[in-house]
Design goal:
The complex is a heterodimer of chains A (about 500) and B (about 170). Chain A has about 500 residues and is mainly alpha-helical. Among the domains of chain A are: about 70 residues, Ubiquitin-like (UB roll) (Roll); about 90 residues, no CATH class; about 70 residues, no CATH class; about 45 residues, Helicase, Ruva Protein, domain 3 (Orthogonal Bundle). Chain A is about 60% helix and about 5% strand. Chain A contains 31 helices and five strands. Chain A has a five-stranded mixed beta sheet with strand order 2-1-5-3-4, with helices on one face. Chain A starts with a strand and ends with a helix. Chain B contains four helices and four strands. In chain B, helix 3 crosses helix 4. The longest helix of chain B has 18 residues. Chain B is globular. The chains are: A mainly alpha (about 500), B alpha+beta (about 170). At the A-B interface, strand 3, strand 4, strand 5 and helix 2 of A face strand 1, strand 2, strand 3 and helix 4 of B. Chain A: One of its GO terms (molecular function) is polyubiquitin modification-dependent protein binding. Chain A: One of its GO terms (biological process) is ubiquitin-dependent protein catabolic process. Chain A: InterPro entries: STI1_HS-bd (IPR006636), UBA (IPR015940), UBA-like_sf (IPR009060), Ubiquilin (IPR015496), Ubiquitin-like_dom (IPR000626), Ubiquitin-like_domsf (IPR029071), Ubiquitin_CS (IPR019954), Ubiquitin_dom (IPR019956). Chain A: This is Ubiquilin.
């Protein structure tokens, strides 16, 4: 039976539509979507003091001819205000269509993991650098995802292992399905302040629990029941499926394979090269990415961001027990980087591959040097270093994990001196590493602990002697003070004994 | 006889509201055979903390309506200085006519038979936009409203979200 009813939008003029009372509310909404341009998930129809549910028929609500239905728009487009972002999660649940995962998400996502070999480490890195975290969270891809918990849920439920875990552990299922929890998690992830606060709370709760007799055992059980299965599922590769994409989380946690490496540039392109992601960073790798022929070097970096964000968003709730508890009130903004982290990063095949690509291309190095004032000064002061850096063989050597590890440790000793300014953790450390490498190869680095100075500075002492500085002890002192830089040592010697 | 008058009056108001609804709320009968129990949905007024929420309430009319006021009780969770923890709305126009024994309210502020469903709900909507903490029904909420607005806002945000998830 077709009747005419009136629709009264919260904004705008009343209008009439013809409906069949046997239609469902959703069908009516679809009709209204054409007229009002309010998408169906955002429509709220209210009639006779009730909010109409999509799957019910109009007849079920006793809709009568000539009556009026209120139409209210349920929240602005996601992401602007807290109110609206809270409204959006309700929307997808009423939609009949499965939410669309942004195209390429699977690809990025899960394929091209850059950063770190395991989740706990990833979390630690993230939590230690709120800025990086924020940037990740603000990147459009991650935001789109974050603002739509349904996507998250789809991702999670698309993974058979994870789903199995969730089936086995209803509580976990509840956490991951609860829009409020998800929202809180996302908000927290986006806002470093809140993140820290949450961690403080968790920390306090943890210490309370630990203080309680049996509390620690409970915690351990919790860890065993929640984190273990999750990690197991996440890192477990399904049998007979060679494709890493089949278990995205495996790719996320394990060092990525060849395929991952190939996929990595995709998100960078999607983000517009060194787009919104990389832009705010004083990123020394940036220029190469815009330069023709050098794109490969920079591409993987932006890729790190969406992924890392994803890992946190998706699993933060459960995986978080470890990271958050351990972290406590942490969140140091320090530039100095944990050598272990650095080493891990360097050992990551993907990172190595990237480094190799970068370093085997002298042009890229040149650009890198030119784009960084500090590095340039250093190179200009030491012509040998330039020669060194343009020697592919030497660079190849530098990329050896052992070397990098040493450098990273040295870097730590130096307190992250190599690069200044607050920026992306990775980049600074990496750059510092580069600077350190130069010093190491050339003239002996400041912190180099090697043998007696006569041996370490043998060549420089010889040079100085050739120049007419005959006092060996004086020369050594000057060289030590100038960290092995002959020019600086000469200047020092000429200024006379201080 | 008076019951017949109440029924007649309520039916008339219901019919009028169906045809020409008022912004901000929707009203219908809980059960079509009982005109004394109304189901109300109040749309959280824009530009207030309650914006975006859809709050359900039951409006019960006495059989001697309109001589005595109806009572309004939120069935959705509510956090407001003028709503009792059990959901009952406490506004002066819903108080039985006559002088306030406590001397707070003037007779003119209390129930009068000229009030209709529409005027009552408009009063409730205005109550949502501007709580009156002079004679609070929910003391905790009133204290929070006065002393720690942030906490109040947070709680209201929570009930707004809850109200969105209930359908």
């Amino acid at each position: 039976m077709a009747i005419t009813v009136h629709i009264k939008p919260s904004t705008g003029a009343k209008f009439s539509v013809d409906v069949d009372v046997s239609q469902t509310v959703l069908e009516l909404k679809e009709k209204l979507a054409e007229k009002t341009e309010i998408p169906t998930p955002q429509q709220r129809l209210i009639y006779k003091g009730r909010v109409l549910k999509d799957e019910q028929t109009l007849q079920g609500y006793g809709l009568e001819a000539d009556h009026t239905i209120h139409l209210v728009k349920g929240g602005a487009p996601p992401g602007s205000t807290p109110a609206s972002s809270s409204a959006s999660p309700a929307a997808p649940t009423t939609s009949t269509n499965p939410p669309a995962v942004p195209p390429g998400l699977g690809g990025i996502g899960f394929g091209g993991t850059g950063g770190t070999p395991n989740l706990a480490d990833m979390q630690r890195q993230m939590t230690q650098n709120p800025q990086l975290m924020q940037e990740m969270m603000n990147s459009p891809a991650v935001q789109a995802m974050m603002n739509n918990p349904e996507v998250m849920r789809t991702i999670i439920s698309a993974n058979p292992q994870l789903r199995e875990v969730m089936d086995r552990n209803p509580e976990l299922n509840h956490i991951l399905n609860d829009p409020a929890t998800m929202r809180q998690m996302m908000e927290a992830a986006r806002n470093p302040e809140m993140m820290r606060e949450m961690m403080r709370n968790t920390d306090r709760a943890m210490s309370n629990i630990e203080a309680h007799p049996e509390g620690f055992n409970m915690l351990r059980r919790m860890y065993e029941n929640v984190q273990e299965p999750l990690m197991e599922a996440a890192t477990h590769r399904p049998e007979g499926q060679a494709d890493a994409a089949a278990n995205p989380f495996a790719a996320l946690f394990n060092a990525p394979g060849q395929q991952a490496g190939q996929q990595a540039p995709a998100p960078a392109a999607a983000d517009g090269g060194a787009g919104p992601n990389a832009a705010p960073l004083p990123n020394p790798w940036g220029p190469p990415s815009t330069a023709a022929g050098a794109g490969t070097g920079a591409a993987p970096l932006p890729a790190v961001n969406p992924l890392a964000g994803l890992g946190l968003g998706g699993l933060g709730g459960a995986g978080g027990f470890d990271g958050m508890g351990v972290q406590g009130g942490g969140g140091s903004l320090g530039l100095g980087m944990d050598p272990a982290q650095m080493a891990q990063m360097m050992q990551n095949p993907m990172m190595q591959q990237m480094m190799q690509q970068v370093l085997s291309n002298p042009q890229v190095i040149q650009q890198l040097i030119d784009s960084n004032p500090q590095l340039r000064t250093m190179v200009d002061a030491n012509p040998q270093m330039r020669t060194m850096l343009s020697n592919p063989e030497f660079l190849q050597q530098m990329t050896r994990p052992e070397t990098l590890q040493q450098v990273a440790q040295m870097q730590q000793l130096l307190g992250g001196a190599g690069a200044g300014g607050a920026g992306g953790m990775d980049m600074n450390a990496l750059l510092g590493g580069m600077g350190g490498l130069g010093g190491l190869g050339g003239f002996g680095a400041p912190a180099q602990p090697a043998g007696p100075p006569e041996e370490v500075y043998a060549t420089q002492i010889q040079q100085l002697q050739d120049m007419g500085f005959y006092d060996v002890q004086e020369n050594i002192r000057a060289l030590q003070a100038s960290h092995g830089n002959v020019n600086a040592a000469v200047e020092r010697l000429l200024q006379g004994p201080g | 006889m008076s019951e017949g008058q109440a029924t007649l009056l309520l039916r008339k108001q219901l019919k009028e509201l169906m045809r020409n609804p008022v912004d901000g709320f929707s009203a219908g009968l809980v059960d079509d055979s009982n005109v004394f129990e109304w189901a109300i949905t109040i749309i959280g007024p824009p530009d207030t903390l309650y914006e975006g929420g859809f709050f359900n309430a039951i409006m019960s009319f006495p059989h001697n309506y309109p001589n005595n006021p109806p009572s309004v009780r939120f069935t959705s969770e509510m956090w407001h200085p003028n709503v009792y923890p059990d959901g009952r709305v406490c506004i002066s126009i819903l108080h039985a006519p006559g002088d306030d024994p406590n001397g707070y309210e003037l007779a003119s502020e209390r129930w009068s038979p000229v009030h209709t469903v529409e005027t009552i709900l408009v009063s409730i909507i205005s109550m949502l936009s501007g709580p009156n903490d002079e004679s609070p029904a929910n003391i905790d909420a009133a204290k929070e409203w006065r002393d720690s607005k942030d906490l109040f806002k947070k709680k209201v945000g929570r009930i707004v979200r809850k109200s969105q998830e209930n359908f």
